[in-house]
Write a structure and sequence with these properties.
This protein has three helices and four strands; from the N terminus they run E-E-E-H-E-H-H. It is of the alpha+beta class. It has a four-stranded antiparallel beta sheet. It starts with 7 loop residues before the first strand and ends with a helix.
Length: 95
């Protein structure tokens, strides 16, 4: 598992190719290589309207193994919402 003290950001999934995923981070596109297992996981969730993915700060790797209970992960997700309710609570409710 990636250490959580390393900085990361959230990127919006734009396109998924066989060996790369294109994400949008603060208005700029980044092509990030993906493994076969990451590609399989992303194929299952790509149908959602908006998919946010944790990306390392250097924008070179996905960080798909960060636990959803990590406080830093929740802070990053909450930056994308206008609600005062926790994003992880909303996700658990199925909103």
């Amino acid at each position: 598992m990636q250490p959580l003290e390393r900085p990361f950001t959230m990127g919006q999934l734009l396109t998924l190719q066989f060996d790369t995923v294109t994400v949008l981070i603060y208005g700029k596109r980044y092509d990030i290589p993906v493994s076969v297992s990451e590609h399989q996981l992303l194929t299952n969730i790509v149908q959602d309207e908006i998919v946010l993915l944790p990306v390392n700060f250097e924008r070179t790797r996905l960080l798909l193994d960060i636990p959803e209970t990590a406080p830093q992960f929740e802070r990053e997700l909450n930056e994308f919402t206008d609600t005062e309710e926790s994003v992880t609570d909303l996700l658990k409710e199925g909103v």
